[in-house]
Amino acid sequence: MTAMLRTRGLGKRYRRRWALSDCTLEVPAGRVVGLVGPNGAGKSTLLGLAAGMSAPTAGEIEVCGGRPGSGPAQLAKVGFVAQDTPTYPGLTVAEHLRLGARLNPRWDAGLARERVERLGLDPAQRAGRLSGGQRAQLALTLGLAKRPEVLLLDEPIAALDPLARRGFLQDLMEAVAEHGVGVVLSSHLITDVERVCDHLVVLVASRVVLAGDIEDLLATHHLLTGPRRDPATLPADQHVVTASHTDRQTTLLVRTASPILDPAWTVRGVGLEDLVLAYLDAPAAAPSRPALEVLR
């Protein structure tokens, strides 16, 4: 099966600064991906490369089996909604839909019209006079009516109030269920990722430090508490993500696919937010093993 998103050694440099570096990952088709990381980690850069808005400095990227921006057929596969939910303030809702129909060969006019009616958007209303939530929904409508194979969302709901954000995410999941579109959603809000995503990519300091299906990641990470000890004494298949110590006690977050049989440890599961924060807070955000191995 063709991967929704595949990169190998991908990098993007702006003058002397690498905005993305040595990014290697593979996301299966049909996933709803949460892309998380601090400001400046490279999330927008990765999405821009995937949308074909810029070219890589190093490495390779493939989206839905093709090179981003390589031609009309490839551009038609990808929908993109930027952080500021771009719309044209002087155009009405109806004019946005007509523009979408002219620019997109697979445009679904029925889908666009149905969403506008269901959302209660006035076709004669100029986008500049819509609320933030309404503009976000209009931008999502334009992205979905394009009938893409994958929809890239660069923090489109960051500025919305909780009610508008919930409505946006609910509409997004309904569209995923109905039309089978894959999604990459960049967000700072782990609760939103947990609500709608089934796959996770964590970027820190322009590098991928964690990637995989969320269910598998939670099943293979464990919080260990026990008598103080040197983490280097653990079995080789127990990768230590973070470690903290008191005079008598050690607490470790470890990743392993094997059972933890040492009776000295109290073993607990970890939630998604704590898992993400652990990788964001790991020393230098760099695991001790090669990046490709950590991604497995």
From TrEMBL:
Q: Which Gene3D superfamilies match?
A: P-loop containing nucleotide triphosphate hydrolases
Q: Is Nucleotide-binding given among the entry's keywords? A: yes
Return the Pfam families for the record.
ABC_tran
Q: Which InterPro entries match?
A: AAA+_ATPase, ABC_transporter-like_ATP-bd, P-loop_NTPase
Task: Show the CDD domains listed in the entry.
Answer: ABC_DR_subfamily_A
The UniProt keyword set, sorted, is: ATP-binding, Nucleotide-binding, Transport
Q: Does the keyword Transport apply?
A: yes
Q: Which GO terms describe its molecular function?
A: ATP binding; ATP hydrolysis activity
- Residues making up the signal peptide according to the UniProt record: none
Domain ABC transporter intervals: 5-230
Q: Which family is annotated?
A: Belongs to the ABC transporter superfamily.
> What protein is this chain from?
ABC transporter ATP-binding protein
Q: Which organism is it from?
A: Saccharothrix syringae (Nocardiopsis syringae)
